[in-house]
Write a structure and sequence with these properties.
288 residues, alpha/beta, 8 helices
């Protein structure tokens, strides 16, 4: 059983760098606190689905994001009774105060682990992660697999472990662009041992097979115009297949969002009826 930290005596009603957040909305009722990592301080945000509820869901954003970028999901789950701790990882937004080139995925993994320690230990915990945030999320899962009974991954990234220590930018990119580099990962053993449940959520136009578009195998399609519409598919098809099949059929599920590419959350925000239906499915999946 992991120790839990108590943030409640040090919360604020506003974020410290609200003008730097991607989509800060002052109408959102939330509490904010900080975790000191020594060289920098990062902020967490608690959105409560019930009054005074201690959060039991950890939300881990992806690249070029902060905790506000997934608000369609976070606030939708709040309205369905779920309390979530969202975090800002170093380097991915101005609000973190850390330049991207001065941090690493390895640091992001440690940051997610630190914030996990604030979750409610009296109940099973859940993790939701997006894109690059899938790697920190699964690494946290590996350290706490007996405590976490549900994990939701939106278009998760999976990388060569050598990328963990490479500074973001060109050094990181040079590692992950090597064909089939994702096969040298340490996430699949975690997922194969996991006895909880996995829900994988993908856009229809993410995880495309590169060879179908005249590109070499072992990588992602990236940006591609399909039927006159520019689509973004940064996740290799094989990554999705490997993550999904690592969990037994009885404990895994996948939802493919028609019409969406990697940017599933913005697509849902622009299609509220379909978004509400998906939120209902996620809420049902997360229910104890």
């Amino acid at each position: 059983m992991s120790d839990t930290r108590d943030f409640r005596t040090a919360t604020r009603s506003e974020p410290r760098h609200k003008d730097l957040l991607i989509s800060y909305d002052p109408a959102v009722e939330a509490s904010y606190f900080e975790h000191d990592f020594g060289l920098f301080v990062l902020e967490g945000r608690i959105v409560q689905g019930e009054p005074n509820a201690h959060p039991w869901i950890l939300s881990v954003h992806g690249a070029r994001a902060d905790y506000t970028k997934a608000d369609f999901v976070t606030l939708g789950l709040r309205d369905r009774g779920y309390s979530t701790l969202g975090i800002s990882l170093s380097g991915h937004s101005a609000a973190s105060g850390v330049p991207l080139r001065e941090t690493t995925l390895g640091s992001n993994i440690a940051e997610a682990e630190a914030f996990y320690s604030y979750l409610d230990t009296t109940r099973k915990r859940k993790i939701i992660a997006y894109s690059l945030g899938g790697t920190p999320a699964v690494k946290v899962l590996g350290a706490h697999s007996d405590e976490v009974d549900r994990i939701v991954l939106f278009g998760p990234g999976m990388y060569d472990t050598r990328a963990y220590l490479a500074p973001f930018g060109r050094p990181f990119g040079s590692v992950i662009r090597r064909p089939f580099s994702y096969l040298d990962n340490d996430l699949l053993p975690i997922l194969r041992k996991y006895r909880g449940r996995l829900l994988l959520i993908m856009g229809e136009y993410d995880g495309l097979e590169p060879t179908e578009f005249g590109l070499p195998a072992g990588g992602a399609v990236g940006e591609m115009t399909i039927d006159g519409v520019k689509r973004y598919s940064p996740i290799p098809r094989e990554v999705i297949d490997l993550i999904y099949t690592a969990v037994s059929p009885a404990r895994r599920g996948m939802i493919v969002v028609p019409g969406a590419d990697h940017a599933v959350v913005p697509w849902l925000r622009g299609h509220p009826e379909q978004g509400a239906a998906l939120l209902d499915e996620i809420a049902d999946f997360l229910r104890d």
